[in-house]
């Protein structure tokens, strides 16, 4: 395992973060406590120290499972991240980023996690009903009380992220240290805005859904509709009304020539490196200079072992990174196309721009 600093903090995290959204009730298709603990044990044995959950994951069951495991560990060896915003009860204030909900949610998460502090407390998304000054103030007070060490954000757009960063610069609020965002070879539009903010402001990017719900595993074949038993993609393929970011519609990709060219290229690179296609997809993210850690999910020990194989001991070459960049390149809309085109020959080494030139 390799360890990186979380943004411009002194906190070091394993470059693979174990996402615990798969932990919960077997009736909901999740792992039970015993199997979840086996995955946590193996993750820790392989050197992983960074675990991400949320109060919304199976309505607190994920946090409870982690807490029962964490109580048997040396607490300081692990970096525990969780989130707040989602509906957690029937009351009118049991949702959002109002001070009341944040304070109550933090206390509930601490109890479920069986710990007296949370290493990284993240808002799970923007709240259109609550000004950021209110939730930043609540998070500040949790930090001051010693219940939270660092604060982060998830699923924000560019202007929202920059606004929060600017609010934190006057010293009234603790700084945001990380952005948890969907980012993968099939979702690169965060490079236009959010990741640029992170690069310029020193925030660490924590990509979620690095395999796009399974679409970047190489296990699906063109023209062969996945069966219901073939993971999230199979379930959604049978009923596309259930499509979501972590499980996109099969019809979106089945006749998408560019997608199949990408899968073919990933397969070729995987063969060259003696690795698997999922490992190539995760390694591509790990070599992006704004990414200290990639959040993986695991529904089995075998899946965990395979994904963890991306973490250390090998690298994609510059040519391989550029090939993957080119195969997965999204259309560059206005005004980004103009910005990049007219700035192509304006390379100032003392004022580097994050994504005009990729660094690996």
Automatic annotation (TrEMBL):
InterPro entries: AKR, AKR_Detox_Biosynth, NAD(P)_OxRdtase_dom_sf, NADP_OxRdtase_dom. It holds the Pfam family Aldo_ket_red. GO terms for molecular function: oxidoreductase activity. Residues 15-327 form the NADP-dependent oxidoreductase domain. SUPFAM superfamilies: NAD(P)-linked oxidoreductase. The keyword Oxidoreductase applies. It comes from the Eukaryota. Keywords: Oxidoreductase. GO terms for cellular component: cytosol. Belongs to the aldo/keto reductase family. Aldo/keto reductase 2 subfamily. This is NADP-dependent oxidoreductase domain-containing protein. It comes from Magallana gigas (Pacific oyster).
